[in-house]
Amino acid sequence: MSEAKKTVFIKTYGCQMNVYDSDRMADVLAREGYRPVESPEGADLVVLNTCHIREKAAEKVYSEVGRLKPLKEHARKAGRTMQIAVAGCVAQAEGEEIVARAPIVDAVIGPQSYHRLLAVLARAAQGQSAIDTDFPDEDKFDHLPKIGGNGTAAAGQNGPVSAFLTVQEGCDKFCTFCVVPYTRGAEASRPVEQIVSEAERHIARGAREIMLLGQNVNAYHGAGLDGGDWPLARLLARLSDIPDLERLRYTTSHPRDMSDDLIAAHRDLPRLMPYLHLPVQSGSDRILAAMNRQHSADDYRRLVERLRQARPDLALSGDFIVGFPGESDTDFDETMRLVADIGYAQAYSFKYSPRPGTPAADAADQVPDPVKAERLQRLQELLQAQQTAFNAAMHGRTMDVLLEKPGRRPGQLVGRSPWLQAVHVDAPADIIGTIVPVRIETIGANSLFGSLTGPAAARSGQASDRDAIGAIA
Ligand code: 5AD
Ligand code: SF4
């Protein structure tokens, strides 16, 4: 391998789609010989791939840029340059404002134009304007290097056992609290052929699981192999046919787009894992309407019932917002009631945070912070209790675990259960990337601990378990 000329430190905030985007930016930069490094000290380029969804996103970026100032100064004194680029959703939302407030930022690039990152950096190096927050006509995916291809950041290496693959971007739902339709733009789906070939590249590099990503992934409708538009269910069925692709997942879904064929896919595709992130946000119909969610709490209850009929062991995860403008105690009680009715395996919950430019930010009846804090605490206690109960029910059961990487202790590996729980197990490193039966013996706060059973245990020289082979139903 030739010696790389320059180094880049990429810091990623926010969701899995940003993780995917950061990897792709690393690939683009590798074309110019940039090698990723683990810290900003001494780097030639720092990319902050930002998130704008909640809290003081822009403020966080400005303080991070402030921390980079001495490093940039140090580089200048040493006769080198350190370029700073702000990418992602804050870049999209703030645009020129970023350079106006933080002149040490050299380049600003939105999520739809990062295939043009090298050109933007070149303009910056010449002292020209380097702000690209367009929604270009061309498809950025057509212009990005292929995963693991020659000259990319990860060329010649094995990839992750569980790989992210963005299939859909943007959102047309316009929930009144959310910035995504503004920062990521209108819904757009990648063609099936492009996705299948990217999935095959991941598999060739050692992936056994693919997590399909999209801001509203179940609204996916990409050009199919037969010329027509394919919904997500058909894409999943096609991906299921790839040899060696053992597991499929997708996130994040909107209840309105949970179509009959997608529900049926949970029944018909054994490789589609029994775990679904299905945000509901609130249990109050009044608040759901004000959020423009386009469904009621009972619609959601009925939907979950149908999903569980299709796949009885389906575990659910969700997102919740407390303290949306106008939320009363009664509205909040409805959210608690919905959570109690559904029973979540895992969930994320947030205090409502007004996002500039979104309709709800201007509502007069904002909820005071102490009320939001108290509601959030009560909701999180309930969700945590449900998660603990879900995990505790795994004790003594044997489940299929896809081993992903070495654990923290030597001799230990960590993998995932079908329900996305992290599972730690003593096992030899050469079985990373395989699915093995593991009997769960200890339930931790955030993960499970178990031991190998069956042939894998015999191979690794451990006591094999006679009565616990096979996955649970
Ligand atoms: N305030 C609080 N939470 C929000 N989310 C999105 N926008 C906001 C906001 N303005 C949450 C939603 C969404 C998750 C990704 O972030 O719950 O599903
Ligand atoms: Fe935001 Fe999701 Fe609503 Fe789209 S569906 S506007 S991404 S919360």
**Helix percent band:** 25-40%
Overall radius of gyration:
23 Å
**What small ligands are held by the chains?**
5'-deoxyadenosine, iron/sulfur cluster
How many individual helices? 15
What coarse outline follows from CA principal-axis ratios? globular
Structural class: alpha/beta
What oligomeric state best describes the polypeptide chains here?
A: single chain
Read across the widest sheet, the strand sequence of neighbours is: 2-1-3-4-5-6
Count the E strands. 21
The CATH architecture of the largest domain can be given as Alpha-Beta Horseshoe
Profile the largest sheet: 6 strands, parallel
Could you characterize what this model shows?
By secondary structure, this protein is an alpha/beta fold. The protein has three domains: 6-140, 3-Layer(aba) Sandwich (Rossmann fold); 155-391, pyruvate-formate lyase- activating enzyme, CATH 3.80.30; 398-468, Nucleic acid-binding proteins (OB fold (Dihydrolipoamide Acetyltransferase, E2P)). Helices cover 34% and strands 22% of the residues. It contains 15 helices and 21 strands. The protein has helices at residues 16-30, 57-77, 88-94, 96-101, 117-125, 140-143, 180-183, 192-204, 232-240, 260-268, 285-290, 297-310, 329-342, 369-392, 454-459; strands at 6-12, 34-36, 45-50, 83-87, 107-109, 131-132, 162-166, 168-169, 188-189, 209-213, 221-223, 229-231, 247-251, 275-277, 315-322, 346-351, 398-406, 412-416, 422-426, 435-443, 447-452. The strands form six sheets. Strands 2-1-3-4-5-6 form a six-stranded parallel β-sheet, with helices on both faces. A five-stranded mixed beta barrel has the order 17-18-19-21-20. Helix 13 (329-342) packs parallel to helix 14. The termini are far apart. The model is unreliable at 462-473 (pLDDT under 50). Iron/sulfur cluster (SF4) binds next to helix 7.
